[in-house]
Amino acid sequence: MDSTTPSPSSSSPFDLVSSALGRYIPRGGGGAAAAAGPADARGDRTTRQRVPDNPAADRQDQILGVVNLDRDLRITRCNLDAPIFTGLNAVVGSPFTDLLPPGDVPTVTRRLRQVLETGEAHVARIQRLRRGDGSELVVSLSILPAAVPHEGLTVSVIAMARRLHLYAAETAIGTSLDIGETAQSLAQSLLAWGDVAAVDLDFAVWTGEGVTGKGQGRVRLRRAALVPDRVWPEGYVTPGGDLPSDAGRLLEQAVRRGDAPQTLVIPDRAAVERLLGSPRVVRALVPGDRSASVACIPLVLDSAPPVVLGVAEVWRRADRPFRDSELLDLQELVARTAHHVDLARQHQREHTQVLALQRRLLPRSGGHTIEIASVYQPATPDSAGVGGDWVNSFPLPDGRTALVVGDVVGHGLGAAATMGQLSMEARALLSAGLAPDEVLEHLDETVTLLDDAESGLAAGYSALGSTCCIALYDPVSHHVTLSSAGHLPPVLVLPNGHAGPLAVRPHPGLGVEFALREPFDVHTFGAPPGSLLALYTDGLVEEPALQIDEGISRLADAVSTVHPWDALQQAARHVVSALAPVRQRDDVTLLLARMIGYRKGDTATWRLPARDDAPAHARAHVSALLRRWHARGDTQDDVPLLVSELVTNAVRFAAGPITIRLIRSGNGLLCEVGDTGNGRPRLSRGGLLDDGGRGLHIVHRLTTRWGVRWTDSGKVVWAEVVR
Known about the structure:
- With 723 residues, the chain is of the alpha+beta class.
- The protein is 31% helix and 25% strand.
- A hairpin with a 5-residue loop joins strand 9 and strand 10.
């Protein structure tokens, strides 16, 4: 091993670390840890082998070393004089990868190249180094770019004491809420004690379901993590695959002996084959053809009774049996980190529940007057949790279509509950005929009530500042009416190709104005047939490096490329993939609506003065139209009577002109009579011969459904019949 004395004037990372080594390396007396030699196993080889520990190994302190590499990743200088590094063949001119286990070479090489290209350091990687006698040393490895004028890299090495490694491993495992990444971090930490490490979880844990202390029957296991990352022999179970049903015996033997789960050690391949019995199971669980021993450590959640989440397996060559102190370290690490696995399981369950709720809120389809497509892309599992984005579209009884998008503050089940409540309330109010601004007023009050001391802030969740945008599309007038509460403006693409956000006056979010509540504005825009409307949440357009206006402009450009003949669902997915990365910290929601509307020949409108002869004129107009539409005989009798009764009711209880509109839609007819009155027609309990309310009883019997919607100038009574 070559050792180079640093120049006092040098300030490269190599020289700085080397100058510090003299203060920390113990001089004289050796102190190197002797490698544990093979031990013979006698008797029942499926029981734990007792191998004498090397006390000196546990007494080693944290020791520093440093290696300089050129751009070809060959060693140019090194300072590994500490006794703990004895046996590492770091020869000047040799590749640094000679110090690595073969399975780790691709990953470490990729990291080294990355630091060379970017100049950004890679700090504190838990890594194994290979000694000449085949034993391995666990180190914390940091990769630094060499200081000018030197080129290449400086690799600092810290030989890790037992306590430090356990602490570093636990810290690394607890950084993600994704159950797969948590299991992978645990397997990478376990690799310090073996050649292959795997984590197999109970299937209920993998899916986020609850687990019980006492399982029934054979345990179903799924492989959650496996290291190192390399090509494995055919038949070997890799991450995502289910272990053979007989493999549950391995977990059962590890955890079902006595009242407390226990670690199981199998010393060699012959004992593994004898225990597993089936060649198929051996191929699925043993990572190679060489003789190997395995330690199976159950992941146990500390509770009463103990709950077993799965099993961790550490494989290594049979000529390196597990020492008692190593088994204690493995048990301690797995015990320390089992709760991280359970936290990831709980997060997975919550993530799945919220995701199921949000997908139920997505619109299923449009109607014959509008085409709908939607995309919901949830946040990554290791983010703060699934957010409160929601989007919905549904036909209203009067022939219009409601498009609603909202974003509830916060993440998780609290946001999901509020999201579901606001979505259902908006649908009910819109179906009852309320205008968009009136619906937002009710939602604003709901958010305020939900945030009271008992149900809101005391529960640790507040929905204040949630946003919502409601758009109503009228397929007869080809207009969109919308109101917004703090939401980003929709993007409209006209048939001529012009695209841009709608000019919507900004308004604070729901529930944020306590003293003075501003009214919600109502905006109306023309949307001719062929227009495309995009409603979305901020996750689609927000990026740290861009202004929000730039993100909206990018969305407008992307939506404007959608051709009128393109399949709308495929186009929506393309827009999302172009704007939002696959992994993001916030939910992404997009709703595209292509306006179709009614053909001109399928609608008719008349405007009559509110006089006593208005019902007769209305019957004449409607009868002539139904004959041109070749309606059935009973329809030609019922619809004029229906319209006559609605007009009569308008003449008696309202003032001003009366508007009559008939819409032919599929197998039905929609009849509308508008007036300037503000009273709500109601069915009375009187009979058909009573003077008051007789007309509404006739309307009720002739129609499949009827109702009222309110306008700025009065109301519209609508009724639907089958033609």
